[in-house]
Amino acid sequence: MSSSKVKPNSVTVVSVAQACSLALDVEEGKTVHDIAVKIGCELEVTVATALVDMYMKCSCHEKAMQLFCRMPKKDAVAWAAVISGLTQNGVFKCMLLDGPVPDAVTIVKLHLWTCIKKCGNVGSAFRVFESATEKDVVTWSSMIAGYGIHGLGQQAVALYQSMVDSSVRPNSQTFVSVLSACSHSGLVQEGKSIFKSMTQVYGVTPNTEHRSAMVDLLGRAGEFQEAMELLREMGGIADAHTWCALLAACRAHRDTEMGEVVAAKLLKLDPDHAGYYNLLTNIYAFDEKWDSVKETRGIISKGLNKVPCISAVEVNNVMHTFTAGERSHQDWEKISTLLWELSPKLRGDDCFF
Prior knowledge:
The protein is mainly alpha-helical. It has helices at 10-23, 26-39, 45-57, 61-70, 76-88, 91-98, 104-118, 122-131, 137-149, 153-165, 172-185, 188-200, 208-220, 224-233, 240-252, 256-269, 274-286, 290-301, 332-346; strands spanning 310-315, 318-323. Helix content is 68%, strand content 3%.
């Protein structure tokens, strides 16, 4: 990328920082951090959170905390990264033994994010949340985000309403969490109502994250004109991820005409991403536009590199990564056998997946 004289942006920094985190490569991570400083995006929430997570994963908790303390804004995900990292490094335990005792709200946040992020146990998280006598806006927002992460949109919206009824004023991050939950659960009317209330009731000005969540929500529902109107309101600052989500929605709804419009915008932002061309190819194939399929595939074959997707799972503080078709993992045979045994159960009538 550097040799091609293409300038990195915040999305690039986040992606490479996450790769360094997976590879536990702190030296490359520091280089990425230096680039973030040079291009002026170091303290953006998503960038700083990715760097904090990278440093924590690489056991450099002091550098992680220095950066975390300098962040002007800290959302629920940033708190999750730092609390999870401190817990994994055993530092939080030392803080309890040797340092100032954290207050009850901080302890609740720790338990919430341990249950949600590290264990995936939303039920336990909610029990911790319910038992807390003090709940600030971060605590409420964290629990709402937890429901959203696990696709429990109805519960997220209900909890948001309980928060409002409890006279806790939602902030910008609360709206990101609840709108994302609505998007992933297809709660279109609820999402529209909450988005409208942001400015009219709470005086919160929608930012890129809020509008991106709404574009995703409207796109999944097939309401493309409203989604495009929101994108126009963003004044050209929508990133490639937002446009890609809308292109994927065009594929799901088999809307070729809108897909071409969205793809044109997306490929201006990132013309060398083979995955976007593949999405467009699928849209053309659904519409049986075989000449367009051939033309788009021809563009890919002329030298675009398709970045392989990986799956990752952390077991006992060790990160295991997998790519499609690979057999290099030491437990590959055991994993394959287990998947083979689970396959018929996952296809059964009582399976909700």
